[in-house]
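Any chance you could type out a protein's amino acid sequence plus the matching backbone structure tokens because I've never seen that pairing?

——
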Amino acid sequence: MLYHGILKLNNYPNNCISWQDCFHFRTSLFYLFTVFPELICTFFVFIGFYTRHALIVLIINMLVFIFVVNDSETIVNNELAFLYLLMYLVLMITGPGVFSIDYLIKNRRSSSANNNLTINLK
């Protein structure tokens, strides 16, 4: 997804004019609503920072792409979007994992809470 976001950002002036406006926003605003998840949220998932929050945005982005933007397309033509959606749903269920910033933050909070309990008990 990061690759798609970089391509859209590099071709911003050209693509913004021809971009579909499904929700009757300004075309440039709708274009940025597509580029943001593909760049920022994908990067957050990659490093494991606010992973589930970023995945919610990416899942919504894929659902809009599948059912609103390409609703007339067949499932075969939307195969890559369905695969991305399935991958995001699996990551949402399993969580960020051990090698993530979320895991480090969670362990830091739990260890500081345990230290506070032992200090207060003495």
Observations:
- The two ends are 52 Å apart (CA to CA).
